[in-house]
From TrEMBL:
GO CC terms in record: ribonucleoprotein complex; ribosome
Lineage of the organism: Bacteria, Pseudomonadati, Pseudomonadota, Alphaproteobacteria, Rhodobacterales
Name of this chain's protein: Small ribosomal subunit protein bS21
Species name: Jannaschia pohangensis
Gene Ontology MF terms in the entry: structural constituent of ribosome
Transmembrane segments: none
Pfam family of the protein (one): Ribosomal_S21
Matches recorded under PANTHER family: MITOCHONDRIAL 28S RIBOSOMAL PROTEIN S21, SMALL RIBOSOMAL SUBUNIT PROTEIN BS21M
Length: 68
C-alpha cells in the first residue's frame, strides 16, 4: 500500500493512509487478532455479519426500487 505526500503535507497523507487501511479492514482484523477467538464464537460472528450484510443489501435494494 502506498500513499504519496504532496507539498510536505504529512497530515493529509496520514489521513489518506488511515482511510485506505479502514477500507481494507486492517484495523478490524488487528482488533480481532488481539485475543483468541473460539471457533464457535468465530462461526457465530461470521453468521451475524452475513445476516447484517444481507439486510443492508436488501434495504439498499428496496430503497433503490422505491426511488425509481
Amino acid at each position: 500500500m502506498q500513499v504519496s505526500v504532496r507539498d510536505n503535507n504529512v497530515e493529509q497523507a496520514l489521513r489518506a493512509l488511515k482511510k485506505k487501511l479502514q477500507r481494507e479492514g486492517v484495523f478490524r482484523e488487528m482488533k480481532l487478532k488481539q485475543h483468541f477467538e473460539k471457533p464457535s464464537e468465530k462461526k457465530a460472528r461470521q453468521k451475524a455479519e452475513a445476516v447484517r450484510r444481507a439486510r443492508k443489501l436488501a434495504r439498499k435494494k428496496a430503497q433503490r426500487e422505491g426511488m425509481m
